[in-house]
Each structure stands twice: as C-alpha cells, then as structure tokens.
C-alpha cells in the first residue's frame, strides 16, 4: 500500500471472483487508511492505481470535494499531529485495529480557503507526477525486457536433470533448487545475441552492506531510514534520526545515484531502489546491498532500471538462502549478468529513468510541502 509504485508488488487475483469486487476496487482521488496491524498509513489513489483491488484491511475514505477537496483531506490525515490522534483510536492486543465508524469521528479542523486550495493543488500535482514517474520507469523496464529476453511459453517449460559435474562448477557449488533451476532458467531465456557483463565488473567499488551496531537515536541528527522506508511513498516523511557519533555511521550513509538492493526480508527482498535527492546523504540500515556503478562503464540509471524490473527481481531472488531470515549476499549479486545494449537504446532507457527520478523527487517535495503547511498551522494554533 505504501510503496512508491504498488503495481510492482501487487499480487494477481482470479477474474472469476465476483463477490464485492466493485467496492474493493480503488478509484482515483479516494484515500486509503490502513486499519489492521500497522495503523494510520495514508495513501492517495492516483490515476495509475485506479482499478486495482485493495484488501479488507484498508478503510476507504471517499471525499466529498464540494465540502473538502480530496488532496487537502489526504494531507490533513497525513500530518504528524493527526496521525497521533488516529493512533488513539486503536483497540486490540494481538492485532491492533481501528474501525471505519471510529475514524469517521475524527474532527476536521477549519482552515482558510486559500490554504485549503493551495494544499489541495500541491497534493494533486504530486499524485500526477508520481503516476507519470512510474509510467516512465515501467516503459524503460519494458524496453529492457523486450530486448533482453526471448519470448518463452512458460506453460511448456521443462526442467532437465543436473549432473554432479554441473553442480560442482556452479556458483559457490550451490545444491539448492532455487538457484539451480530459477537462476539458470532465467539465464537460458536471455537472447544469445546480447552481450552481457557481470555486475561486479561494472562497479567503481566493491558492493557492501552497512556496518551492524548499536543505533543512537536523537532528536537532531542525520536522518535514518530502514530499507522498507526507502521503498515507501516518500522518504522525506520519515522522522527518525541517528547521532552523528554513531559507530560505523560512514558505512550507513548513501549517495545520489547509488543503487540499493534489499538483501533480507520477505516481499521486499531483491527489490532495487535508486538513491535520489530525497534521501541522498541520509543513513540507511544494513539490510540493503550498496551498488555503486562506475559511470564510465555504464549509467547507474540504466542498471537501476534493469535491476528494479519484475523479471530481474526474480533473477535476484533466485540467490536467496537461509531459513528463519531469508538473505542474499554481495557475491551472488555481483555474479548477475547485466546486458550491454546498443548506445541509442541505452540512452533512451537512461532518459526515461532520468525523467522518472526527476518526477519522483518533485512529487515527494510537493507532498512534504503540503503536509508541512497543515502541521505548521496546527502548531501555531497550539501556542
């Protein structure tokens, strides 16, 4: 729900499901509020999410624009003071919940019409930019997948026996099926006329994860994000800070145009994220592998578009190991094959990804500005 691009993580349900399907369908300008487990996450439905199906653990808020514009209401529900108010409605011990009727009792403060209009416009523009950004990235990823992969009928795929000699010659001599079947099957689908290079040969420094250690949280310090925070709709809204004296802080700090690949977790594992100006020079936890691409060899924007595509996420996830905590490591990631495409196509993909990055950044800044306007106004009233 809170991912910048939920369509990349959405599951598929059967078209034969008819019961209550219309009321579960998301519609543009509606607002979602998480109501089970993690309470109070807010999502504004942009045009690219219209028609998707939302689960039963989301309260749908359908704004009456003639009384209160949807963009303003979203920003109001998202500001820290109102978030704290919503938390007071929680009940339950094992699974915390809030009810739609209870949320309906939330007081809506009255603001000047000029302020309401400004906030609404900022959120609307932010939502449009977010949808456009996702479209550009999906277009870039589509170009890569169409160029790199053969057209394969997966219904007729077969798995052949693997000999002990092949196992002995495999990467790290792995015996697990997820590697021997999934990874090698994907590599078989690569077109034979495309040139490939190992990812480890395209970086300017060895891939690494941040140093583990005690985290010293403070009120004023360097912004600290989890890998999950990086995947969220807007890193600027994360209000958590580390002391500048934290041991190993240098290994936590990420830079613009670095690529982060989630190295543990469940659904997020294997996902690729591009560091942009919204969280460059912030600290990010140790659950992501840092990939610093050598720009003299290949654009990091191209590599990001490739690594973040759905098909390549499957490729990355074929390297999972572990039982209680699933993990991938730098050695495996470094041995992934990256296509070297012709210059015009590469430039086209880089331009699309550059546009994605610019629109994503602007969307985040506009949303933060809108939420801050409301929060600052509430604070003034409290003085």
Structurally, the number of domains stands at 2
Q: At the third CATH level, what is the topology name of the largest domain?
A: Adenine-n6-DNA-methyltransferase TaqI, Chain A, domain 2
Q: What strand line-up does the widest sheet have?
A: 5-7-6-10
User: What is the approximate shape?
Assistant: globular
The percent range for strand residues is 5-15%
Low-confidence segments, given as residue ranges, are: none
From N to C, what is the helix and strand string?
HEEEHHHHHHEEEHEHEEEEHHHEH
Give a short account of the largest sheet.
4 strands, mixed
What's the CATH architecture name of the largest domain?
Alpha-Beta Complex
Question: Mean pLDDT, rounded to whole units?
Answer: 89
Number of continuous helical runs: 13
Distance between the termini: 35 Å
Please tell me how large the radius of gyration is. 23 Å
Oligomer: single chain
Q: Structural class, from helix and strand content?
A: alpha+beta
